[in-house]
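Data card: per-record layout.
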Amino acid sequence: MPPYFLGSIVLIKSEAQPSADVVDGQQRLTTLTLLLSAIRANVVSNGAGDITQLIYEKGSQILGTQDRFRLSLRPRDQEFFQRYVQREDGFAQLLVLNDQSSDSRKNIRSNALMFDERLKAMTEAGRLALAQFVVTRCFLVAVATPDLDSAYRIFSVLNSRGLDLSPTDILKAEILGKISTSMRDAYTQKWEDMEEDLGRNEFGELFSHIRMVYRKAKPQGTVLKEFRDHVVNDRTSEMLVDNILIPMAEVYQELTDAEYTSTERAEAINESLRWLNRLEFKDWMPPALAFAVRHRGKPADMDSFFRDLERLAYSMLVTKVGINERIERFSRLTGEIETRADLQVEKSALQLTPGEQFATYTRLNGSLYDVLATRALSTVLLRLDALLSGGGATYDYDTTTVEHVLPQNPQAGSKWLDWFPDPAVRASVVHTLGNLALLTRKKNSSAKNYEFEKKKTAYFSKGGISPFVLTTQVLGTPEWTLPLVTGRQTELMAKLEGHWRLKGRKDLLAELGISPVAS
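The structure for this 519-residue chain is written out next.
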């Protein structure tokens, strides 16, 4: 077969020493080692011993030498890698291992399972041929340099020209590469601790949010470019890590996990955070980071801010504010936070204007099902259900769907048409909050036109109960009539109106200078 090119790796290597530090290429070398280990575990011939020699050099009691492993990972993963990947009997244990405490270990096991599955579908000869191909026909270009500074420069050049590295990988090389040699190991440890605590994907998201904290405008370029321009700027690397990245990472973890801790108001703050994290957009995170970094030790201020931030974000969800307008609004809020502006005054970007309150109230009180996207509507109804439950309910269900009580198209001769004989009246209430319920199952098209009693017992409940207050209200009702639906609508709107401080419609009309008749 023709040779296969695996790309370049960057090493720090002194001519006098056989070992080298890997600056770029560790993932490829780790994966190759894992693949060889998987092949070794799936062959029964003498080839297994040959593969072991490629993974580590066995020590000798006679010569007084110890086992010498070809590849070492960072200290926190090294023992795991040696035990489960490099040692002969470790791979089988890795496949059945359940407890992995880090993303890197989870990834190693996931790849091991995939390799094992593919190899088991091959013949013994095929597995040995693959090992031979990896060792003799796969090539790497090794770029070696004797010092760390030049290695980081080479790394930055290679990886600014199209190779598939995340922005955080490149920024790590650039930022840490500017730190003095005596301090670089300590700051590398700080960086890797942050990445380990958050997880690789969340760590990347953090950089996007920090970029927006400092950018305060719709992005015009890549995360990498704008982070360099607006965050790195002329700051020292030590300042970036100690004063920006570490505080932001700590706060970001608290916000995304909804695990703010304090002697007071912590649960109320975390309740707001849980509902912010359910939103389909994350544009609220930059001002949240900016505020929490500054006011983390003031639980009263945190509670007030995140209640209002939830209110603002859900208003945007309900009124379907576009992404550009959201970014502009949240960027303005971030600017107000940084200038210590009063966030409680009506003109603050954190507060809803009377017009915005009116728009939110009107949308919620209208035909909601056919206006909001499924996920957005489900989120609003779950928030409402939590308010009805007093805040103690949890919603970790695999499936949550929204269903009409009164069907959209009831069948002729059904009880539904006795209760709602006027088509215009049915159309006015069928998609409103008062006629909606939540289910923990997928939609069932055949159940939509069930009669009310059958719908309650066969579709809306399991064993006569439902985990949702909204649906329990329906189950406790003997019939479904127009007065009941409109009364329920009024009750549900009062709950949302009170929580999100949406003034009553008449009050809003008066404040906006519009007469009820004209409206």
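Known properties of this structure: The beta strands are 4-12, 21-24, 56-57, 68-69, 138-145, 401-404, 436-439. Residues 167-353 form one domain.

See the next section for split statistics.
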